[in-house]
Design a protein that fits this description.
CATH architecture of the largest domain: 3-Layer(aba) Sandwich
Number of domains: 3
Shape: elongated
Distance between the termini: 53 Å
CATH topology of the largest domain: Dna Topoisomerase Vi A Subunit, Chain: A, domain 2
Strand content: 15-25%
Strand order of the largest sheet: 3-4-5-8-9
Length: about 350
């Protein structure tokens, strides 16, 4: 716990910086964070376009009292460019917030809650500037994928979720070894990665930059339109399964079932337009086995049936929550626990 502006914040300075790093994947800021014992040293995000090779920015881990002044934990000073700020100002400058007050509010909202386990909502991470059209450099996509393929820990995590090796490679899943985060690339209809979704393999954490509108794209749609799979080309696909999460979709694909994810329980108008641009008109609704999932399935039908789409509903013969749980539990026999109607 640290104290900021006389308010306890239920986090460490190191935790705050790592969470900020996850929200700033696109620009590659705070690439290196080192704990020296008395403070943290990180690459300065405010000079050399945040790409300096050696960390020159110091961040106090604890309050520091001198003869002239008291410095709060989280106070930042760059020994190269001279940038100096307290933690709320640093947060505001990094995230493009309007004032230190907004940076302080971010800290309070992010960390001051009571729960037995920290489980953030489903999150996305931009990999570029704040413009919606931003895309990640292909070389960086390849590097993240290589990180994944070289990590036994990350591959084991995904294998436990019944995601096949060929799917990891075909969809170019990535991995950040420092933060132990599996990265799921979300591509636009031009095939370029717009943003990543991140899932920690160390716990039930999901990461994002909150300003990202994940409802503008359908996960996996570009891949089944353009990829080479066991079911053939896109014009040979008779039906596509719609799921809520990318893990659910990749589970189905590993079993030879064409699938996409709307990254939530409800579909957006933009996502409907994306589907309209494809040759697919027959879908299986595989949203989660809960009230939100059933309401989401009804909404999908309400929006798309008038546009000529046809749907197969699923009846679940199990209390398991989602498709990935079903596949993990029953393996090859997962379909035996569903009825289409």
């Amino acid at each position: 716990m640290i104290t900021i502006w006389k308010t306890p914040i239920v986090a460490t300075v190191e935790q705050v910086l790592k969470d900020l790093k996850l929200q700033l994947y696109g620009a590659g800021l705070l690439k290196e964070i080192k704990n020296t014992g008395s403070d943290l040293m990180c690459t300065c995000p405010f000079h050399a376009n945040g790409k300096e090779h050696n960390p020159s920015c110091g961040v106090l881990l604890q309050q520091k009292v001198t003869k002239d002044k008291t410095y709060e934990a989280g106070t930042v000073h760059c020994y190269t460019c001279g940038y100096t700020a307290d933690l709320p100002q640093f947060v505001a400058d990094l995230l493009g917030l309007s004032s230190p007050v907004e940076g302080f509010k971010w800290l309070v909202n992010q960390y001051n809650y009571q729960t037995e386990e920290r489980e953030l909502p489903d999150l996305d991470m931009y990999r570029g500037s704040t413009a919606k059209s931003s895309v990640l450099e292909e070389s960086l996509v390849k590097q993240y994928t290589q990180n994944l393929l070289q990590s036994e820990e990350a591959c084991r995590y995904l294998h436990k979720r019944r995601i096949a090796n060929w799917v990891l490679e075909a969809y170019e899943l990535g991995f950040d070894p420092e933060d132990k985060t599996v990265l799921f690339p979300v591509r636009g209809m031009d095939g370029k990665v717009i943003f990543y979704k991140g899932r920690s393999i160390a716990g039930k954490h999901f990461y994002n930059a909150k300003e990202i509108d994940k409802t503008s794209v359908v996960f996996g749609l570009w891949e089944i339109l353009n990829g080479s799979f066991s079911w053939g080309t896109s014009d040979q696909i008779e039906e596509v399964w719609i799921t809520e999460s990318e893990i659910d979709a990749l589970s189905l694909i590993s079993y030879g079932v064409p699938a996409v994810a709307i990254m939530g329980s409800h579909i957006s108008e933009d996502q409907c337009k994306e589907l309209e641009r494809t040759p697919f008109r027959r879908f299986v609704l595989a949203t989660d086995n809960d009230d939100a999932g059933r309401k989401g399935a009804s909404q999908i039908k309400r929006l798309l049936i008038p546009k000529g789409f046809r749907f197969i509903n699923l009846k679940w013969h199990t209390s398991l929550k989602d498709i990935n749980d079903l596949v993990k539990e029953y393996g090859d026999g997962w379909k035996d626990h569903l009825t289409g109607y």
